[in-house]
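User: I'm new to structure prediction. If I give you an amino acid sequence, what do you actually give back? Let's try with this one:
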Amino acid sequence: MASHGISNRQVVITIQKDFTNIERLLAKLLKAPKSLRRPLDRLNSALWELMDGTRTFDEIVEIMQECYNEDIVPANERCSSSVSQLVELNLVTVNN
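Assistant: Good question. You get back a string of structure tokens that encode the predicted 3D arrangement of the chain. For your 96 residues, that looks like this:
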């Protein structure tokens, strides 16, 4: 897996919150965190590491299938769903 660039470490995405003035005041009063931590599971951590801009979606699916066998079946649909969720969260962009 390391040969494909997968470290087998859990990826934790940290998202800085962008507060309005009122939200900032409320967050300060309520001692709310200034960032959101989003830990990814094992498969999504690997997917995140593979999405470095050097591979096509098909190449990523092939690597995921090779590395995770039955855990990722059906690989195309599972990878597509995960990428769609990351796009919805504005964490990745997809280039055609």
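You can read the tokens as a compact description of the fold. Here is one thing that stands out. The CA atoms of residues 22 and 66 lie 49 Å apart.
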